[in-house]
Amino acid sequence: MSDFDQKCINTIRFLAVDAVQKANSGHPGLPMGAAPMAYVLWTRFLKHNPRDPKWADRDRFILSAGHGSMLLYALLYLTGYDVPMEQLQLFRQWDSITPGHPEYGLTPGVETTTGPLGQGFTNGVGMGIAEQYLGAMFNTGEQPIVDHYTYAIVSDGDLMEGITHEAASLAGHLKLGKLIYLYDNNHISIEGSTSLAFTEDVGMRFEAYGWHVLRVEDGNDLDAIEQAIRAAQAVTDRPSLIVVTTTIGYGSPNKAGTSEVHGSPLGADEVQRTKEALGWPLEPTFYVPDDVLAFFRQAVERGAAWQQGWQENWTQWAARNPALGQQWQQMMSDELPDGWEADLPIFEPGDKPIATRNASSKVINAIARHFPGFVGGSADLDPSTKTYQKDYPSFQADERSGRNLHFGVREHGMGGIANGMAVHGGLIPYTGTFLVFSDYMRPSIRLAAISEFPTIFIFSHDSIGLGEDGPTHQPIEQIMSLRLIPHLEVYRPADANETAAAWRCAMQNRDRATVLLLTRQNVPVLDPAGILEGVEHGAYVLAEADGGQPEIVLIATGSEVHLALDAQKLLTGQGVRARVVSMPSWERFEIQPEDYRNSVLPPGVPRIAVEAGITTGWQKWVGSTENIVGINRFGASAPYKEIYQQLKLTPQYIAELAQGLLTRA
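The structure corresponding to this sequence follows.
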């Protein structure tokens, strides 16, 4: 290692050390140990343009070990992204763009939100899938239009988390050769040595997954790191894991190689000792030598040249392939193509009852005909979730143009992979599994909401209506728990037409994730008139009271809307004016103008809510818990109609409750 290389690496280290010390919060150890490998990757390999962080054919870099965020922020500042020194000095402070863990959409150059360990690793697999899929679509000449790598720095913690086992297994199966991960193998976690709980041979495990595994025994050996990355690039039929042995907190005389440097500042005295040990000036803090900054900032000119060369190639390619060129521009614009909704089905009341999962299947296949960026699949449940695109092949190692993804029984990995595909650009991904298994996916759903990824999560078998499979498969608390996640739109459509309308909303949600909750059991088809507008508003009057202003309002979602409609008929026969409101999306309804909300739910008129799930939360719309028909226990194994009957989810019970409510009023 040359003296200049050492100075560049120490600049990265001490920007991290000083930022963590100033904030009195953070993780200095990882940046200090991993700085050499990051330096090699960013100065000798990474194809990027700091002046255009969204350039489509850039390499992606993920700091999956997001607790070491100052490593990334230092690199972004040094290489010329719009991350000024003042922001490094505001690390972990209110309203800064340098939060404790990297957040997509907040900091230029941050490719995805990381911190919950394993998520970045898994997002990278999704990015690798997206790169291969788009390459199969657009690379028609000698000079490819899509040709980039996905790199990541991953940690011991990442590789312990179950989500990475799922994602790594699928990546190996799919032979994602442009996936290159550097493993910061420092043998330290929060509690101490990783030997307390993690003694497996990681390299052998990844070899068993089908990965190409390399080892660098000295994390300060820049030439060995470079040679390993070049060797990884040469292997095109397997993802690569480079196991780099490092020292956490490298350079700290008293804390290097210990858990003390993992999640706490070094402390003023140890900062001084570390700077003295590595020959670094004690003052000023946040010191960046001029020659070091000039060297790193060459990334701006280099990136501009890369992008200009790519643009010239793209222009020539588009002239030869005008239809593909137009398709590229549309897909990369983050806008839907004209006519994408041309074949969306309209269902008629005279049609046979149909499960909303089956209606969703018809919608998926209608969209697929008009939008090649629409890709997805399920966790080994296509026959049940109905998420398969019938006219297109499956994405496999030998079929990169396939639109159907087979995630295997890997819900946790599926969610993170889909998020990676969404943030890569060019695609709208969807996933499919049973609603009860959303619990396995919750971290990925939450991160999609935080990051505003347009991922679409499909969950079928949305209630006790799935019947005989029993309590383990019957969701009770899941509907409401998903509604608790901020900036996530949840739809529980009542019939086939509401399902098509909910899909329309989901496709148009370009700045947020969407959840679709679908029935296994057949439900009657509603009159399509007014449904699209109603679903877009989140709630609407489905059936008006007979004979004037309603005396009571019945609010329901999903399959229970039909129970409310039947209850309305009973109440009408008893001389009670009842209005039925379908509320497929709380989130959409909440953002409507007050006048509209009052027109649907008139103030002062008693309300009853009906939903086959936990009742907590419905008080928001109906007031008292006595006004809610739901389930506050686990389900049962029996035919679904009997379960509904036994748990008092019936039109008769709803009508009785309404009568009692009106009597008390």
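The chain is about 45% helix and 15% strand.
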